[in-house]
């Protein structure tokens, strides 16, 4: 019970006092932060405010589509998440989610990224370290050209898994595509 790694999972649905206790008990261990449940606005704001002070400890971050406004508080310049390895958004809306700059500029360990295609600049040095990329984008309303896909893939030399899916596709195709430099790819168009 005294091991800090036992207390590293934080969820926005937890009561505020539990979040505070977990932050204390986890000491300086890396954190898995999740904002994937719909909760009261005040609870969301309090959660993000307290876990943002520990951004330097985030190992993974997951955010649900109903919680995107929380990312606004993480847009300050100069923020970094040096331990962040996984960033997941569940972007099901038609608008574009702007991912905070720290994800691409201050996360040297980022390897696993789940986003909508328009959430991310196609050419960024942070993409070069990715091994897993999941693009969840409305292909019909926001299509990418083959040249854009080629540019994206050429900027990610260590990519092992690529999954592209249209969230509005009711019957996703599970066929695999052979792409140069990619061990596994899966797409639904």
Main features:
189 residues, 19% helix, 20% strand, globular, alpha/beta, 8-stranded parallel beta sheet, single chain
Give a quick summary of the entry.
About 4% of the residues have low confidence. Helix content is 19%, strand content 20%.
Average pLDDT number: 78
Radius of gyration: 17 Å
List the secondary-structure elements in sequence, H or E. Answer: EHEHEEHEEHEE
Instruction: Please count the helical segments.
Output: 4
How is the main sheet built? 8 strands, parallel
Helix content: 10-25%
Structural class: alpha/beta
The tally of strands reads 8
Report how far apart the termini are.
48 Å
Work out the strand percent: 15-25%
List the strand order in the largest sheet.
Answer: 1-2-3-4-5-6-7-8
Shape: globular
Low-confidence stretches: 174-180
Assembly state of the chains shown: single chain
What does this structure look like?
- The protein has 189 residues and is α/β, with parallel strands linked by helices.
- 19% of the residues lie in helices and 20% in strands.
- It has helices spanning 16-25, 41-52, 101-105, 146-154, and strands spanning 9-11, 31-35, 58-64, 86-90, 112-115, 132-136, 161-165, 184-187.
- The longest helix has 12 residues, at 41-52.
- It is globular, with a radius of gyration of 17 Å.
SSE topology:
Blueprint: E1 9-11, H1 16-25, E2 31-35, H2 41-52, E3 58-64, E4 86-90, H3 101-105, E5 112-115, E6 132-136, H4 146-154, E7 161-165, E8 184-187
Parallel strand pairs: 1-2, 2-3, 3-4, 4-5, 5-6, 6-7, 7-8
Helix pairs in contact: 1-2
């Amino acid at each position: 019970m005294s091991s800090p790694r036992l207390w590293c999972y934080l969820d926005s649905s937890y009561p505020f006092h539990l979040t505070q206790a977990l932050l204390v008990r986890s000491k300086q261990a890396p954190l898995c932060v999740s904002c994937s449940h719909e909760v009261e606005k005040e609870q969301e704001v309090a959660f993000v405010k307290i876990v943002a002070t520990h951004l330097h400890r985030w190992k993974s971050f997951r955010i649900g589509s109903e919680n995107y406004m929380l990312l606004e508080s993480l847009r300050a310049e100069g923020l970094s998440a040096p331990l962040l390895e996984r960033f997941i958004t569940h972007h099901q809306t038609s608008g574009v989610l702007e991912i905070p700059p720290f994800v691409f500029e201050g996360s040297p360990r980022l390897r696993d990224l789940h986003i909508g295609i328009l959430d991310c600049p196609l050419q960024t040095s942070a993409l070069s370290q990715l091994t897993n990329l999941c693009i969840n984008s409305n292909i019909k309303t926001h299509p990418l050209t083959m040249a854009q896909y080629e540019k994206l893939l050429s900027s990610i030399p260590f990519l092992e898994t690529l999954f592209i899916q249209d969230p509005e596709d009711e019957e996703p195709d599970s066929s695999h595509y052979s792409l140069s430099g990619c061990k596994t790819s899966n797409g639904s168009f």
